[in-house]
Amino acid sequence: MNKVVLMGRLTRDPEVRYSAGENALAIARYTLAVDRRFRRDGEATADFINCVSFGRTAEFAEKYFRQGLRIVVSGRIQTGSYTNREGQKVYTTEVVVEEQEFAESKSASDNYAASHPRAEAPAPSMPNPGAASTDGFMNIPDGIDVELPFN
C-alpha cells in the first residue's frame, strides 16, 4: 500500500499550470515544510516535501492556498527520474495529492503570517462581512434575533 499523510506549512504559493488541449487540466505544485518530531541540538528541523495535485484539487489549491498556511494532505508517493541539461540523471520524489484540507483556522493562519512576513505583498483577502473573534468564529451583531432550526 502506498499512502502518505502529511501536515505542514506551505513554503510558497502554489505554482499552477494548465495542460494544453481542449479539456485543460489544472496542475498545482507546492512544497510543504513538515516539522520533525525530534529536534537537533535544541533547534526545530523540517523536511521539505514536494507535492503535486491535479484537476479540482489543483484549482482549490490555486484559489485558497498561500505561503505559510498549515494544511494536511493525503496521497501517494511517486518517484521518477529525468536527465537534466548537463546530461546528469536526476531522481525525484513527490507526493501526488488525493485529498487536502486546512489544518488551522483563518485567524491562526493570519497570526502566523503577521509574525512571519514575506518579501512580496500578501494576496488580497475576501471582504469579511462580520468581524471574527479570536476563536475563528464570526461575531453575530447585537440586535439580531436568530431562530435556530433545532431545539
Automatic annotation (TrEMBL):
Disordered as annotated region, ranges: 102-138
Molecular function in Gene Ontology: DNA binding
Pfam families reported in the protein's UniProt record: SSB
This protein's UniProt keywords: DNA-binding
Origin: domain of life: Bacteria
Database matches in NCBIfam families: ssb
Subunit annotation: Homotetramer.
Protein name: Single-stranded DNA-binding protein
